[in-house]
Amino acid sequence: MEIKILKEEYWYGGCAAWGGQMPLGERSEADLQLEPNPTPNQAMPLLVSSRGRYLWLDGVEEVKFSGGYIHCQGTAELYPNGEQSMQAAAEKQTLRDAYQKAMERHFPFSGKMPAKELFEAPVFNTWIELTFDQNQQAVLRYARNVLDSGFRPGVLMIDDGWAECYGDWQFHKGRFPDPAGMLRDLHGLGFKVMLWVCPYVTPDSKAYREAVQKGFLLQNESGGSFVAEWWNGFSVAVDLSTHPACSWLDTQLEALRGLGVDGFKFDGGDPTHYVGAYSGGKAVIPNEMSHFWAEFGLRYPLNEYRSAWKAGGLPLMQRLCDKDHSWGKTGLAALIPDLLAQGITGHPFGCADLVGGGEYLNFQKNAGRLDRELFLKHAAVSCLTPVIQFSAAPWRILNADQLRTVHAQLAVRRQWQEYLEQVLCECARTGAPAVRYMEYEFPHQGMEQLLDQYMLGSRLLVAPVLEKGKTAREVYIPRGEWLWEGKLLHSRGEVLEFYAPDTFLIVLERQ
């Protein structure tokens, strides 16, 4: 299938991790692989255009932008098509129109949303501080440090390393001698507690022997257990396409809930981990396995995902993949573009990774020279997004003045907390993104390629300071009236410079 790109038409979507490549226009050259999703983040078979058109690409393995055309390997649905497509462009249809039509047809929202606790206060995660040395004493110390440093209790995630082994989801008896008591203590401090889990099983374990005997695992081509290679080595994989295997996993997680666990961080499930796997004698479609993993988490409102396929419209909290502790396109500069891409593909309940970056090796290699300014500016980006999540401890990394900056940023969030929750309820009801492209709210005004500022809902323009050493930045202000720190601005559609030395965060309210 071949589609001509219209003059001044721009396309968005696909994978959240492609945010920095978007939008693509008539002069763009790009090869986009969809099956299997090669990125470690959310993906949808969807491209939407600033001229009101969309491409639904379910079953399409690759899309190529070249020579002013979009080339699809396989059958794609273009809406509107033929003469209707040209008419839509002539009638100045918009990015919002395209997204709305695609969402209503292919991934309508249910009105449900993830647990409200994820949005009400900062989320804290033990990963960067403890990595694979998760233990009861250190978790409790981390939680108490959260409170002692002036932060509100909210959700606390205990990350990878708490269990005996993968697939045998019980607390390690040596590192967690009294998990029920620990959970009671954490609840007493005011926290909801989530645990890290994955859809894999450690080979040569009791869990493996049970799972293989009962047929709960994916197979290789010859009928033996399929071995997935992932970032933690080699594991066998639960066959999430079958109800008995899902029930087996669910029974283990429900036992943890009975112990006092409130929810789960569902990691892994990347499509690339399933290449070469079989189920019932047939080769699996890797993206479908990732989708089954996303669907599994719907029974737990307190959830987090990172990798997902066709999870648009589902009430799941979706985190951006681990970002580097850096200023560039793999670190801070990727956050807003990727959040925008999340939203336009149907994932409004987003999280801009862990503040400072979630790539733990960066913190180990640079332990003595972490960039405190980078940490603060990542917090500024996260501040007015659905979920702000800390892992690297602010009380360890920052000095007293810098810690006060973080609290000033969180005070801005509290100022807009009621509005943020209204936006998220609207997202659940209407399917609209929370973090929105400027083009989405202000179509055909020349903002198609503006990726370093965004609208939170329809009312707040958010522009964090992103450059090292800067306390000010230029912001494009669309036509109309805007409120900035109590002052009314009348914009004709212009670029203005704003200073934000206290929070690195510029927020204008649309009047």
TrEMBL record:
Alphabetical keyword list: Glycosidase, Hydrolase
Pfam families xref list: Glyco_hydro_31_2nd, Glyco_hydro_31_3rd
GO molecular function: hydrolase activity, hydrolyzing O-glycosyl compounds
CDD domains, sorted: GH31_NET37
GO BP: carbohydrate metabolic process
Gene3D superfamilies in the record: Glycosidases, Golgi alpha-mannosidase II
UniProt KW Hydrolase keyword: yes
Keyword Ribonucleoprotein: no
Domain Glycoside hydrolase family 31 TIM barrel: 134-275
Glycosyl hydrolase family 31 C-terminal domain segment(s): 431-487
InterPro entries: Alpha-glycosidase_related, GH, Glyco_hydro_31_C, Glyco_hydro_31_TIM, Glyco_hydro_b
Similarity comment text for this entry: Belongs to the glycosyl hydrolase 31 family.
Protein name: Glycosyl hydrolase family 31
Species assigned in the record: Ruthenibacterium lactatiformans
